[in-house]
Amino acid sequence: xxxxxxxxxxVHPEENKLSNDAVTKPAPLPKxxxxxxxxxxxxxxxxxxKEGDKVKVxxxxxxxxxxxxxxxxxxxSGTVIKVGEAVDAVGANRPAxxxxxxxxxxxxxxxxxxxxxxLEAHPELTPEEIVNRIKxxxxxxxxxxxFPTFIKLCPPPTATAECIIINGVECEPYxxxxxxxxxxxxxxxxxxxxxxxxxxxxxQGYIGIEENKxxxxxxxxxxxxxxxxxxxxxxxxxxxxxxxxxxxxxDAVIRRQVPAPPAIPVNVGAIVQNAxxxxxxxxxxxxxxxxxxxxxxxxxxxxKTPSNYLVRMGTSFQELIDLCGGMPAGDNKVLAGGPxxxxxxxxxxxxxxxxxxxxxxxxxxxxxxxxxDPCIRCAKCVGACPMGLEPYLLATCSxxxxxxxxxxxxxxxxxxxxxxxxxxxxxxxxxxxxxVGKSTVMGIIRSRNAAPxxxxxxxxxxxxxxxxxxxxxxSTADKPFVPTSIPTxxxxxxxxxxxxxxxxxxxxxxxxx
Length: 513
Ligand code: SF4
Ligand code: SF4
What we know:
- The protein is α/β, with parallel strands linked by helices.
- Among the domains are: 119-287, NADH-ubiquinone oxidoreductase 51kDa subunit (Rossmann fold, 3-Layer(aba) Sandwich); 373-449 and 470-493, no CATH class.
- 25% of the residues lie in helices and 17% in strands.
- The chain has 14 helices and 17 strands.
- The chain has helices at residues 127-136, 149-152, 177-184, 186-199, 214-226, 246-254, 275-287, 317-323, 364-367, 380-384, 391-399, 403-408, 419-423, 430-450; strands spanning 25-26, 32-36, 46-47, 54-55, 60-63, 72-73, 78-87, 93-101, 163-168, 205-210, 232-237, 270-274, 293-299, 307-312, 332-336, 343-344, 358-363.
- A hairpin with a 5-residue loop joins strand 7 and strand 8.
- The radius of gyration is 23 Å and the shape is globular.
- The two termini are 12 Å apart.
- Bound molecules: iron/sulfur cluster (2 copies).
- One iron/sulfur cluster is lined by residues 384-387, 389, 391, 394, 414-420, 430-431, 434.
- The site of one iron/sulfur cluster has 17 residues, from helix 11, helix 13 and helix 14.
């Protein structure tokens, strides 16, 4: 099989996949589950339980708080002891439900058998029914983005989905939860891909896996061949970070460039879903199982037994680290996620949520920042950026609060992959500054778009000047990101006309690209 990759930038950090061979074990039940209402992008879920209520595993405890939101189900059985707040991975207090664990009684509607259910055996599952079950089960993107999955399956009228791309890349160092899932649940994963394809009404699926996971590539390709599935292809990808970024994956697999925000992969015909999400979709649709547990890696060079666990949501980081031998001696830094994109937590009371694929414990030596030197204008950060940005410029202008400038320089296109900071020989805190700039600019754009539109100009009067307070569209549309080394793309917020010859019926032709 030909190995593909994305075309712009990228780095290759040391892999450190310490838990690659650790077979996934179910983590013991927590003493209490603390379930955040913000385990997804969008509006917080609204609790529908109160103190004293009894719940079972799988009971709905919070309904979606808006269109872009997701319901939350109990991961344990027991008694609700508090509806209040808890700290999340970024250190903010968020609404949460506390449940004291009593036994392990599941909702009887959940099918707990290991029997593999196939899509062919369930003709009653229409695309609409599939989307509905995914929505009600609270499935969100489990690679970390946590975007509600049902929304991705229903693209806007201006876009046409042509294929599902499953992200089995796991390019970030240390993390192995998706790799273990692909090895241990390959049949269910493949059914999940078929369900996603039917739900999105597409006839082509791809599973992108980095070539440093040959066992997963071989196993899934063999299973697909055994089942005589002709419209799902395993795509081996080169070892390069951030290969698992949505836009990089689309470029690598189907050779199409996703334009700058607000464009998304479906604007070029692709819906990207994580491997863990595909498995959760299988369980939701075929087993009536809401999303309340997930595969999570607990790892670090000083961790006694780096491991992979099937974890109930709401289990604390402390309990999981204790299972692996406890915190190493000395100063340590604990990350929610991997070392490239993870966030350092300030308490081990933080609990596992739907997007928590890894807990990484870095030693003081690994985590210590090197002394910052002046920029030597080597442009290594520019060469490493997979989005074709100028990180040194974005970071410097962000630190000087030049918000207009960084917006014009497309800071909203940054995927926060950290490749620039990783590669900088002067150890400049590029990502830190860019994150501040990006979140500030996103806030400015949101408030600008929310501002009332100016009154229509009277006949003969000059048009109102664009500027603060006007409902001006994102400036990304004014100046689309057009990298020079790859094919030209359409402006950002317009529907993209797909290249001739890339209609759904012709998707097979993509296999030869
Ligand atoms: S963090 Fe942003 S600016 Fe830096 S390399 Fe990644 S996409 Fe480019
Ligand atoms: S990599 Fe670092 S030193 Fe080189 S241009 Fe970028 S910011 Fe400057």
